[in-house]
Amino acid sequence: MMNDAKLPVSQRWCILRTTGPRTLPLARSLTDGGFEVWTPTAPKLSDRAGVDRVEQPIAPTFVFAKAQHTIDLLAVSRDPASRHPSFSVFRRLNRVPFIGPAGMAGLRDAQATAEAEFVALTEKQTREEMRRERVAQLQRDRARRKALRSQPLGALGLGTWVEVQEMPALVGLQGEIVEERGTAAVVAFGGLLRMEIEAWRMIAVDVSGNLTCTA
Asked: N or C: which end of the chain has fewer CB atoms below 10 A?
């Protein structure tokens, strides 16, 4: 592997310093200004409505810029009229040190790990939300069935011919109500087959099989 110090300038980076709260705004501003810069970030869940994630800096105060931008960035950092958040170009012994991929590998690994952890967290959250929705749907279904079970027979009196819905074993069968039992009725389907059916499950039909009304 080639030593970072032997890499061409196009593959190395200079270090910019700023305040912690300005780290990400500086990176965005310089990017918008045409500079190739990078700072490692970690996503986190947002508590703002309509926003799923926000980024936070892994190395606050540090922004890395491609080395070929160094002269221009030195000028920008000294320009009092600059529209970018204030920053300085890091120097050591009155020189601007450059770093290469090896020197930034740890930060890139940290960013990749943070992204993977965020994906795992959001997938877990999605599964939990789906579980809660299934529970809520079951509760709604139970409440609906409870309300339906209290439905009176209404127009479904003795002698009414009916078909039964939401009971697969009786699909297509027609029977006659032979006994009323409040919110249910005994239906004779012919021969010895008689069953107590809840009112909400029955639809009245005429003798030709045409639907007429429900309870």
From this structure: N
Quick one: CA torsion of 190, 192, 196, 199, rounded to 10 degrees? 0
**Nearest partner of 197 among 149, 155, 154, judged by Cα:** 149
User: How many whole angstroms separate alpha carbon 169 and alpha carbon 171?
Assistant: 6
**Residue spans of alpha helices (H) in 50-100:** 70-78
DSSP H or E stretch at residue 41: strand 41-45
CB-CB contact of 16 with 88 (8 Å): yes
**Cβ count near 3 (within 10 Å):** 8
Tens digit of each residue's pLDDT (9 = 90 or more) over 127-185 = 998 999 998 888 887 887 777 777 778 778 899 999 888 888 887 788 999 999 888 99
Closest CA to 108 of 17, 39, 62, 53: 39
3-class SS of residue 86: coil
Task: Name the helix (H) or strand (E) containing 194.
Answer: strand 194-198
- Contact between 96 and 89 under an 8 Å Cβ cutoff? The reply is yes
42 bridge partner residues: 56
- CB count within 10 Å of CB 64 equals 22
Whole-prediction pTM: 0.62
Closest CA to 174 of 153, 198, 205: 205
DSSP state letter for 83 = S
